[in-house]
């Protein structure tokens, strides 16, 4: 039996309850703490590591617990800032409304030039930055900003002024010509 098997057994049998108690300080919920400990143990022992004693392994698992909790909190905060883009939480919409909205968006996108459409999709759907869009399409950042400005104006005209979030990258400096 490899040494890490013995260490894993000791962590699971002797230190698991202490680890769950530690995780509960972060999650404030025992079930979430147990899930966090489980995930941290899996992440810790999924790769070969030089964990030869239970105390070193426990310290490593505690570090993974902290990291996973912080990463999860960041993902949740990021999700909260973007969830409004996916659904209107004010009221449930019918499938017919969703179909009509999809057709409206498709028609609005059809009114864009191919470059405007590509820039808008990469910027607003794939959430790429202007330099990333420029790299992806082989354009200058100034050209991307111009296409984005034009596409945003056309989309707002077709779909309404509040359909797209304010995007400072969609603004073109006055006097710039391509």
- What percent of residues are in strands? under 5%
Euclidean distance between termini CA atoms:
69 Å
Helix run count:
7
Shape: elongated
Q: What do these coordinates show?
A:
The longest helix has 33 residues, at 54-86. It is built from 7 helices and no strands. Helix 2 crosses helix 3 (54-86), helix 4 (95-110) crosses helix 7 (141-159) and helix 6 crosses helix 7. It has 2 domains: 3-86, no CATH class; 95-170, Arc Repressor Mutant, subunit A, CATH 1.10.10.10. With 178 residues, it is mainly α.
Lay out the secondary structure.
Elements lengths: L2 H25 L2 H16 L8 H33 L8 H16 L3 H12 L4 H8 L3 H19 L19
InterPro entries: RNA_pol_sigma-70-like, RNA_pol_sigma-70_dom, RNA_pol_sigma70_r4, RNA_pol_sigma_r2, RNA_pol_sigma_r3/r4-like, WH-like_DNA-bd_sf
Family: Belongs to the sigma-70 factor family. ECF subfamily.
Keywords: DNA-binding, Sigma factor, Transcription, Transcription regulation
């Amino acid at each position: 039996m490899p040494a890490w098997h013995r260490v894993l057994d000791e962590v699971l049998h002797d230190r698991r309850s202490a680890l769950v108690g530690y995780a509960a300080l972060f999650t404030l919920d025992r079930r979430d703490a147990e899930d966090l400990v489980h995930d941290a143990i899996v992440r810790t022992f999924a790769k070969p590591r030089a964990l030869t004693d239970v105390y070193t392994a426990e310290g490593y698992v505690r570090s993974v617990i902290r990291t996973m909790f912080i990463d999860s909190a960041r993902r949740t905060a990021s999700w909260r800032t973007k969830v409004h883009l996916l659904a209107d939480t004010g009221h449930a919409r019918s499938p017919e409304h969703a179909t009509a909205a999809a057709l409206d968006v498709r028609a609005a996108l059809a009114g864009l030039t191919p470059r405007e459409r590509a820039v808008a999709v990469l910027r607003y759907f794939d959430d790429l930055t202007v330099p990333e869009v420029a790299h992806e399409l082989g354009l200058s950042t100034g050209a991307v900003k111009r296409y984005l400005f034009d596409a945003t104006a056309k989309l707002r005209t077709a779909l309404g002024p509040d359909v797209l979030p304010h995007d400072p990258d969609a603004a073109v400096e006055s006097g710039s010509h391509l």
